[in-house]
Amino acid sequence: MSKAIRADYQQKFLFPPCLEDWIPADHPARFLREFVESLDLKSLGFQEGESEEGRPHYGVDLLLKVWLYGYFVKLRSSRQLEWGCRENVALIWLTGRHEPDHNTLWRFWRDHKKALRKVFGQAVEVALRAQLVGMVLHAVDGTKIAAVASTRSGWHRRRAERKLQHLEELLDAIEGEVEQGEEMERGEARMPEELKDRAQLRKKIEEALKELQAREEDHEHEGEPEARMMKTEGKAQFAYNAQVVVDQDSGVIVAQGVVNEETDYRQLVPMLEQVEKNVGAVAEETVADGGYHSAEALGGAQERGYSVLVNRSQEAAAVKKRGEFHASRFDYDQGHDCCVCPRGEELAFEREKWNRRKQYRVRVYRCQSFQQCPVRWQCSRQKKGRTIEISPFHGAVLQQRAKQQDVHKQSLLKKRREIVELPFAWIKQGMGFRRWTVRGLDGTRTQWALLCTVLNLRKLYPLWKAEKLCLSP
Fold first, then answer.
1. Does residue 112 surpass a pLDDT of 90?
2. pLDDT tens digits, residue range 300-354?
3. CA 139 vs CA 169, 263, 283, 419, 429: distances in Å
4. Does the pLDDT of residue 95 top 90, yes or no?
5. CB 299 within 8 Å of CB 392
6. What is the mean pLDDT of residues 239-253?
7. 20 to 30 A from 424, CA-CA: which of 72, 308, 351, 362?
């Protein structure tokens, strides 16, 4: 009968154990060590500390390894990493049994945000050398991730206005009581503490409302002014908009970024420009959902020679609602400088105007025969007749509509979700990341770049493990 295996706490080693033997040869920590050691950290912007006095500083390569492995295994705070450097065998091995504390780790993050973001580009370069990145089809998308700031502790215009009105009523009532007391009593009158506190609160609310008015915003958080109210996780809260461009062949993220704009309208061209910077060119086709559909985005992509397919679902819904009188049913005749309605009537050029919402000038065409038109009120409720605005990017919009008539292009659009939603699922569900742990655009951009870097490294790790990937340039 065999004996149970138990720990022998009195066991002694003839030779001390070797650190290299602590983890297997194909462990992810070894892959990350090799990746970091293949980088030219100085050219990326990592700066070694210099001091002639005191304890020697930790090397930037060591601290970068700690942060990368921490994100690899879902340890994302400096205190969790400090714990890991004492308790996690892989981190103990990576640090060579050194134990950087949370302050050291945080200072490294704080001082090297820009350099940390550049590491993402290095991971993309490795994927390119491994021929993982195809240039046939890419997909772009964004996801809203809640900010550190609490929605409850922020300033909201409507709520602040209601609270200010309520305070005014309370202050009037309290001031009335004070005046009555002064009439009944002689002597020096002092402002009650209750009145003083409420007056200070009123002043604070008024200042917050002035700030919101100046910025033309309805919501603001004093502790995180760059965050914006967005719909995320089924509710409106302070958040940031994280963007990615994903390759169809491998699922590698070839571009990423974070903005505080609530919509994706203006993100298509900047993301494609980053793809061009990272991999040298854009894909033969890039697909995007309806949130990216705007005349400005399509025009910008056409101007730069980017081939895009942007879902027209929102436009299609509007066409269905308005029927034959939707603006897309009106033909623009550039040669005669007019628009032609579905009934064949011409809308003459009236003027140019600045479209404040879209931030560019448009040409306005107005119907001249609206008074005799039998479908006047079905077409428009405007008393002076129907108007059509033509943007400088109208040609790109027409080209996109024609392009999507192709059955092959329609099939590419249908692939968008399966390409780009998987990385979001990995980050949110697999890596457990559903809320930023740092504040401001600078911090969230660094954190998102690190998350995307680690996700790409997860794609590369199986190739390295199978000895099919060389990390050295």
1. yes
2. 999 999 999 999 877 777 777 777 888 888 999 988 999 999 888 889 999 999 9
3. 55, 17, 9, 6, 20
4. yes
5. yes
6. 94
7. 308
Quote the tokens at residue 433: 């990341």
* CB contact at 8 A, 197 and 121: no
- Structure confidence at residue 327 (pLDDT): 87
Task: List beta partners, residue 256.
Answer: 244
Give residues with Cβ within 8 angstroms of 221, minimum separation 6.
Answer: 147, 149, 150, 153, 154, 155, 227, 238
> At how many degrees (to 10) do helices 113-129 and 440-465 cross?
30
pLDDT in tens, 267-277: 999 999 999 99
pLDDT (average), residues 279-297: 93
Instruction: Identify the CA nearest to 444 among candidates 229, 236, 242, 223.
Output: 242
Q: Return the exposure string of 284-303: e unless at least 16 CB atoms fall within 10 Å of the residue's CB, then b.
A: ebbbbbebbbbbbbbbbbbe
Strands 360-367, 387-390: pairing kind:
antiparallel
Average pLDDT over residues 211-216: 57
Distances (CA, A) of 281 to 205, 289, 313: 51, 21, 28
Distance CA 257, CA 271 (A): 8
Return the top range by mean pLDDT from 62-71, 141-150, 202-211, 285-294: 62-71
Q: How far is CA 234 from CA 58, 269, 473, in A?
A: 43, 28, 45
Which pair of tokens denotes residue 85? 């450097």
Q: Give the DSSP H/E element, type plus range, for residue 122.
A: helix 113-129
Cα angle 117-132-40, degrees, rounded to a multiple of 5? 40
Closest to 351 in 3D by CA, of 384, 388, 381: 388
Instruction: Specify whether the CB–CB gap between 78 and 87 falls below 8 A.
Output: no
CA separation (Å) from 237 to 233, 260, 262, 451?
9, 12, 11, 22
Longest Cα–Cα distance in the chain: 105
Give which of 197, 193, 177 is closest to 185, Cα–Cα: 177
427 DSSP 8-state letter: I
* Cβ burial 78-92 (10 Å sphere, 16+ → b, else e): bebbbebbeebebbb
